[in-house]
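Structural biology now treats backbone shape like a language. To illustrate, our science desk offers a sequence and the tokens encoding its fold:
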Amino acid sequence: MEKFKTIVAKDEKELQEMEATLRKEALNLRFQQASGQLKNTARRRQVRREIAQIKTAAAQKAKAKK
């Protein structure tokens, strides 16, 4: 899990790529949990939080541009 400071330092394209990767991971984790294969259930929460942090950083950057 990355610190928020490092997430904010990234540019918009990197943020979009990170969000896409994390969304894929979240989907895979959801399937693993549904089939009973998920060992680390806390990872789902971490992924959701990272996605929220990326969205917050992107919104701050968009607001700063205006």
Summary: The chain has one domain: 4-65. Helices lie at 4-8, 12-34, 42-65. The two ends are 30 Å apart (CA to CA). The mean pLDDT is 93.
